[in-house]
Amino acid sequence: MSERTIELEILRYNPATDEAPWYQTYTVPCQEEWVVLDAINYVKDHLDSSLSYRWSCHMAVCGSCGMMINGEPMLSCKAFLRDFGRKIRVEPLSHFPIERDLVVVLDDFMEKLPRVKPYIVRDQEKPIEEGEYKQKPFELYEFKQYSMCINCMLCYAACPQYGLNSEFIGPAALALAHRYNKDSRDEGRDQREEITAAHDGIWECSFVGACSEVCPKAVDPAGAIQQMKLASTMDWYLERLGGVGARVKRSLSSRRTSK
Amino acid sequence: MSRKPFVRPVPATTWYMRNGRYLRYMAREVSSLFIGLYMAGLAMGLMRLAQGPDAWNAYLTALSSPLALVFHVLAFAFATYHATTWFNATPKAMRIRWGDGYVPGPTVVRAHYALWGLVSLVILVLVGVI
Fold first, then answer.
1. Which residues of chain A, if any, have pLDDT below 70?
2. Which listed residue, of A2, A62, A221, B18, carries a Cα 20 to 30 Å from A236's Cα?
3. In angstroms, how far is CA A175 from the centroid of its own chain?
4. Closest-CA distance of chain B to residue A208, Å
5. How far off is chain A from B5, nearest CA to CA, in Å?
6. Do A205 and A161 meet the contact criterion of CB atoms below 8 Å apart?
7. Domain, as residue range, for A15
8. How many domains does chain B have?
9. Which of B5, B25, B91 sits opposite A98 (nearest CB)?
10. What is the pLDDT of residue A3?
């Protein structure tokens, strides 16, 4: 195993003593196979125990260790040191307030997520004795990709629209709304549209596409949002077609819903 | 200890300078300005045509000025960039079922280019160029 030395430039902020964030540089001896998170853990264990950051699984599943690495939102457990130069700049995720050091405040997302009802909504629950809701392989395929979201917030840190207007519901919450809209067991699309098709929902997205490029789980929130725009536009036209439109909408949704 | 979260402001006018991804997005958006200006020029041509031969000839002379030529070269470059970026983005919005999956993205993109070529060909035949 070869060893090399890197310089980690970390944005520090202590709310008790600092007026504004500042950079601190650490010299870290690293192993070839280390990721950025390993180097940060080395700092915490050997150089400066006051450094605060979030992490848990170290395998791109928990979504806790998202940071800006050389200006790009990444999971620090998935960012290999060998892919960077000798000097690496680490900052907390963009567009979120800094709680302390690399820890950001996620309250905004936690408030938005339940508003899009990210769970199966039924007009009427089926009694348990009638058995489970069955799905065909394609019905699972339709939404599975969007269910892979780990709420790591890299997409919010990448999205300039969210940076400019924090009222925007944002990529991950909208992708999760789409995940349930596309689920054949769900009947809650109309309820979700009150939030997703409102001014701060899908129409705030101008399709920069950065969310999908940085997503570590290939969820493609940008795709989800464009598909929602298409469906919402279709609804708008169908509503204006009167009785015929209503019949088309009903037949489209009844074809989707497993009874 | 009370909380004191630090909010980093996003510069409202220079945010797109932060990385190449945002710059490419802005280039795509700015390209529509050139398409809009080109359309305005085209509409003006129709107006001149309706005003008679003198006005139409003056319009044609104006079109061959160096400034107009430079603008048209630029407008063509931006229109091509605009069209290709949007064509390449179509698979994200267009999901067409194919068996137990969707029509692959590259096929959707190629279909757009094919249709673009076909429509261009029909127009060239209609106006008698080929």
1. 1, 254-259
2. A221
3. 8
4. 6
5. 5
6. yes
7. 3-104
8. 1
9. B5
10. 82
